Amino acid sequence: MSEHLFLAHYDADGAERLGLQIDDTLFALNEPASSLDYLLTEVPASQLVSVLTSAKGDPVSGQKSLRLRLNEQEVWAAGVTYKRSEEARERESGNSNIYTRVYDAPRPELFMKAMGYDAVSTGDPVGIRYDATWSVPEPELAIVLNARLEVIGFTIGNDMSSRDIEGENPLYLPQAKIYQNACALGPRIWLQPSIAQWPDVTISMEIKRDGKRVFFDETSTERLHRTLPDLVAYLGRCKRFRRGAVLLSGTGIVPPDSFTLQAGDEVVIAASPIGELGNTVIVIGRQHAD
Question: The domain 74-284 belongs to what CATH superfamily?
Fold first, then answer.
């Protein structure tokens, strides 16, 4: 595929519509291809590009902000897929050894992160729990899967996490990972239908506080410890995804243990050619415990 093809939502007269972006030009899509639900449930990966090309309408005029909106798709996440993540998790858990064991085990760590309609996109706020003291973003390459569990492409994901809560007891992982505004995706889907190996992607993350950079790092999909087919196969081993799914592939960027997010921080995750996922941090939940 010589051209870069993307799917993204954009604003059209106050409503969000799905468009096809070819390199830098955004095109409207005619029905039914203008529905991401339709594309994920009815179109095999092998036919996706031809269906979209046939449904391509007029170019969209004006500069549009792109974002990704899901509906009833489930968002799942893989953990401990980079060595950097395994080392950080061992420290936060007091060297319990469980993360080292899962890093080398045949079966990966997989957990549900969010329903698609709860995921936010670029420009929306991301959250830190009011009852957490150690909160971090986790930048990840996200796999977009159709209902047949075929890869259709990739986007950027931010798996917001409360490290102190998970570190206190691994059984608290759902509370550390699943809460309001804890999952961000976008800004668009880079179409790579039926790809069987990781694309060569560099992922970077910058965090600014009061306009000043307080953290920056980058990693590459070359450092992923798991294969793409392996993660997808385990995700669908005993579960069907009738609306499609998104699978976060794990993080290879971990801020230092002394760092925690604060309200107002700006988090920008970049991955070429997908773009940038930018969000401002807010506090989620009551400000004082009962």
Answer: Fumarylacetoacetase-like, C-terminal domain (3.90.850.10)
